[in-house]
Known about the structure:
Rossmann fold, 267 residues, alpha/beta
Amino acid sequence: MNEHLSGKYLHGDDFTSEQIDEWFEDEREGYFDLESSGTFSGEYAYGYHARNKRHGFRFLPDSPFTDVLGVGSAYGDELMPILERCRKVTILEPADGFQNERFTYVKPLPSGRFPFEDNSFDLITCLSVLHHIPNVSFVIGEIARVLRPGGYALMTEPIHSMGDWNHPRRGLTKRERGIPVAILRRILMEAGLTTVRETKCHFSLTSRLIHITRDSPFNHGWVVRMDELISRIPVWPTSYHPPTWLHKIKPCALFFVLTKNHQNLSH
């Protein structure tokens, strides 16, 4: 386990099918249970519209998207800013509690295999989902497989350990853990996805601005821009599992705009 906390290996990515099934059951309703239990204060409201626009949507083409896939997209709120350009939206979501009649819902398989044909979607969003999944490299490979050549994928993930997952952590599901940055970049490249833009974000102190904004700071453009500028400063610690509180002060996530080029068809 210490090797995984060091960031040299991705915990869960080499699990057996039985271990993956067990993980899937632990996480299937995990985030929905947190939301419905009142773990997060106040009534549910999506909290990342300004972040998604700044780091993702503004880099997409202005043309309509024929087939859109939201991986683990819950109620589909993340797509609202571009929904008028989305002709058909499918959401791959394990939790029974997340439903929106505007979209088509499909249950994921514990194996991570997507129940879709190759090259099915011209836009895929996968925002803060993969750190809930054991076999990350396989699932990213599936994203690449079902993405059409020339299509886009938006992805963001925490790149720190999120604490020691051997013990219960307040406000987190049982299994979630961040993805070491070097491993995440390698998996994306090996899957045949090309990075259009990579942005460091979610500086560890930004969330405390909720005392000023009174709602999610990442729904405010000025906060997101400030967060991006601070996160760019090349002085912050890079340890995956911070040994002290001082090492926790740093950008905690990466946001990717990805595409699948025609030369990536073999992946």
